[in-house]
From TrEMBL, chain A:
It comes from Ancylomarina salipaludis. It comes from the Bacteria. The chain crosses the membrane at residues 16-35, 55-76, 88-116, 123-144, 164-183. Pfam families: Sulf_transp. GO terms for molecular function: transferase activity. InterPro entries: Sulf_transp_TsuA/YedE. Keywords: Membrane, Transferase, Transmembrane, Transmembrane helix. This is Sulfurtransferase.
UniProtKB/TrEMBL annotation, chain B:
CDD domains: RHOD (cd00158). The lineage of its organism: Bacteria, Pseudomonadati, Bacteroidota, Bacteroidia, Marinilabiliales. Residues 193-206 have a biased composition (Basic residues). It comes from Ancylomarina salipaludis. Residues 176-188 have a biased composition (Low complexity). Residues 175-206 are annotated as: Disordered. SUPFAM superfamilies: Rhodanese/Cell cycle control phosphatase. This is Rhodanese-like domain-containing protein.
Amino acid sequence: MGPLVVNEIISPDTNLFLAFLIGIGFGFVLESSGFSSSRKLAGMFYGYDTTVLKVFFTAAITALLGMLFFSLFGWVDLSLIYINPTFLHSAIVGGVIMGAGFIMGGFCPGTAFCAISIGKLDALAFIGGLFIGIVAFTEGYPMFEELYKAEFMGTPTINEFLGLSRGLFSFGLIAAAFGMFWVGEWAEKKFPREEY
Amino acid sequence: MNIRLKLAAVFLPLGLIIAAVPENTTKAYKLTAEELLVEAQEGAQFMSTDEIADMLVQKDPSFQLIDVRAQNEFEKFHLPNAINIPISEILSEDWADVLDQDVKMNVFYSNGTLKANEAWMITRQLGFNNNYVLQGGLNYWIETILNPTAPASTSPDEEIAKYDFRKGAGMALGGASVSTTSATTSSSPMPAVKKKKKKKRAAGGC
């Protein structure tokens, strides 16, 4: 009965060890799928390569279906799954900053570490910027605290907000994901690039 | 057939199934009758009077005594810092914050253990953690902490140490008459208080 660590089926140390193995697997797959190239991520925003959208949405709907079926079979207790709490204002501001960083840098934090492991210098610069950002935020925390904590909403979920059942919303999301994949592939044909 | 269509052929029907079936609302933590029987027989819910006395003397902030007797009984006598939640009000929304939390350890008591055990069973079945029962209830509290009987002088040292501790705790908690049977009230070894593990949500993030 999951979640494993909460129900003390595995110890927190075993949990960390599993996370380590999964992390290595994740990094390996990211690298081998070409995500350590910043052009691949930037392509998302120019439309010539929408692999990022397809990969991450496929991951999301796979995990979504998996969790819902696990819950249906009684293998996992969804009420014990951690949901990141929503602070609306900081989520919006953070999203904008992260998105801008994505376009300019061509990495997300995960792929940046992938890229640095194969010796990419642009990733080194990106991670440098990441650390500067962390230090600036931490040191300047009193300045940002008000914004950071504004509009605390607890842990709302979109389906509750819309008044839909979890299953129905999930189906909608899966349908929307395939719609986006279709748009993505259309964009790849519309804005092709020879070499990147 | 391209990969997108293949994926869609798998995911969309699964999504349809998930949309069609009702959500699984059975709470995994809800105990079956057998599980509850095992727990009740093990007596895992009991905290000894010595443990509670020790925590009270040390002003341990991590636990809360809860008197489940009626209000008039509570007003006549109650343990230090106890709050009153009569058993009839145990399901009231007002007390949900006290009973269902991960921070403090709640210890129910009544005159005996009957009502306190009832309160424990109800909250246990609701899936609340951190609720315990004072072993023997107030009667046993008075017997062991407020009026401990002196062991025979030939008793083993632990018995005498335990008696000294109880005597001291009883005095500190405003019960027993002060008598001078023993001068070593505070040097007695404290009974070990075992901290119970708390259940937290699994933390995670991107």
